[in-house]
Amino acid sequence: MVDIFVESIRVVRPKISFADGQRLSATADALIAACAQAEGEPRSLGCVSEVRGRAHLYVSAHLRDPELGVAGVARHLGISVRALHLAFAAEPETIGNLIRRLRLERARDDLLIEQSERGLVGVVSRRWGFSGPASFARAFRREFGCSPLQWRRSKAVLDQ
User: What is the C-alpha to C-alpha distance for residues 95 and 35, in angstroms, rounded to an integer?
Assistant: First the structure.
């Protein structure tokens, strides 16, 4: 529907640039998302689930970006941070928790791939957008119940 809207604008104004078309599309998406909310409550599960789906895609594609955060996801989707939080209100985890969990899962997988333990935690933490090895290790321990190196060593023992 939004694509049809943007294409109709291009027909009327054939000199519209691709970048302007992208901005119009994001604006139209934001208008649709705004219409899906009445007094802070989602009216249409279709629009809310579409926002969540687009957020998931964006997050998955940008997990390595250390600047990835809730505000950036909302900005990319062309909606407010509040609207993004509302879209995730019925989900078991917030958008911020989703970003953290996905980063930790990818980092956990990378711990098995790295050949050397020297600098391992620092390399993996930077690769997946964490601010440093200490914050990564704390988040990893909270999520998985052990340190990154303990997890890697336990997996190495199990694989032998």
Answer: 21
